Fold this protein.
Amino acid sequence: MWNIHAMMTANSRCLDCAVRETAVCGGIDGSDLATLSDIGRRRQLAAGQVLTWAGDANLLCASVVTGILKVTASTANGREQIVGLLFAGDFVGQPFSEESTMTVTALTASDLCIYPRERFERVLGEAPGLERELLRRTMRSLNDARERMLTLGQRGAQERVAGFLVDLCERAEGGISERSLTVDVPVSRGDMADYLGLTIETVSRQLTRLKALDAITLTRAGRSILVKDRMILAALANPD
Amino acid sequence: MWNIHAMMTANSRCLDCAVRETAVCGGIDGSDLATLSDIGRRRQLAAGQVLTWAGDANLLCASVVTGILKVTASTANGREQIVGLLFAGDFVGQPFSEESTMTVTALTASDLCIYPRERFERVLGEAPGLERELLRRTMRSLNDARERMLTLGQRGAQERVAGFLVDLCERAEGGISERSLTVDVPVSRGDMADYLGLTIETVSRQLTRLKALDAITLTRAGRSILVKDRMILAALANPD
DNA sequence: CGGGATGTTGATGGCAGTCAAGCTCGGTGG
DNA sequence: CCACCGAGCTTGACTGCCATCAACATCCCG
């Protein structure tokens, strides 16, 4: 009876979920999905609202259903580094850790599927497909983090900003490599600066520089960018 | 017969291995360990020798038995960032990826236990304990990488160098918090600079600055550091 | 002892941070 | 409909930190 109820729940909640194909739960089905579905609860966050604070007890994991969130680390004197951006389908949280080490904040109104951490870990042990998928994703995240360490440690401001725009283009399209396209910047200048390890002013100056080079034009108060020539951007992102 | 042979192999190769307790294989035993043991081969690397090149086919994973290795990412114009250091017991490689994205180089003469990647992935599916342990480690690595993104993006040279020395102290001792202790720097100034996203000269200057502040003294051509007061170091690493 | 590699110290310049003023755009209310 | 307001973005002037280039010191090893 219970299992049948769980399956029903899984059917209604998960099988028609907006991120069924892309989230970590996409790799599992049947009773495993039912178990996971059973511990998941939806939660909305308003823009600017914090999901977890660094230093607090690590109580939850989640999947992003809609919206954009930032993962940040901060120094004692209040400087902030965005160490990751989360989009629909991305996994949130750090299983196996008693304490949260990063702060997670919604950048836009967001919708999450939340799992209590310890129960999620238990499901992880029972559903091999889920554990495998999470391992894959964590490996990818680690690789992304390391690529970004290269940027933060070695690249100049121009390379960082140009590279960021190239990444935006790649995210925007599904593989179509148009020479020019319009992308909207999903974050404020301040967040862009925190992401790139620069200041707002430096980011702004680099963008006007790109405008002067005829690589881009800015609209919607700088929140939408028409990339006129991706080749120029790519060249500036990787000089020599 | 084959299984018994494998068990014997596991006994002789793994059960008395120097990193039996600390490596990723420490979490498994019995037939799983036998399977893993069966695909593992020892390999020595001389200092400076490269294990894997970024861009090459991703053919292997490994455990570090002895020695120190660096994981590096590089820009097109040849700038290098050390994105991770590997010590005895650490796991090397990126399962589930067809291509190596990072270069792994031995900093000292090293001894590895190498697994062909695809066979390692197969074992991963059969030994839940191994997969779980690898997930835990990857989560920790991701967290380390993110902490370091904070350093590379936000901290000044003095904070980076002082923080590096504090980390060295924590690695050196097993929890004993002496106010002063001698640690040896396992890497050259050049590697230290690449690790911290600075130049050799800046690292050197910061060290002499710490010497002037009476926080440390240098010996053995700067390769051994007597930390006279960790409190000073900690304070410089986290100002305000 | 001598030579090469590694580390330190010095002089200089450029890039990005800081502080401060002005601008743009979207929203609100008269 | 338009004037106003405030948040976010841009631009400008200046400073300071760290990279660069270059010389020198030190250590290790033959």
